[in-house]
Write a structure and sequence with these properties.
mainly alpha
Length: 74
Amino acid sequence: MSRSRLGPPPPLPKRPYRDSLVMNLVLALVILGLAQLTGGDLGRAIAVAVGYFVLATAYSWWRFRQRLQHGERP
């Protein structure tokens, strides 16, 4: 689907970089918690959680930066 069919993107939060950092940190901790609850390999879960956190945060920040460069303001 094209962006025009979905409508305009949601407005930027007041502090987009901090908010995305906190959200991704919480989700990385959820990965660790699920691994511990299910008896999974904690070393592998740490690697996955760190990888998720770095990649997701980098992508979020890149997208926010693009939107801010195109004149959108929080």
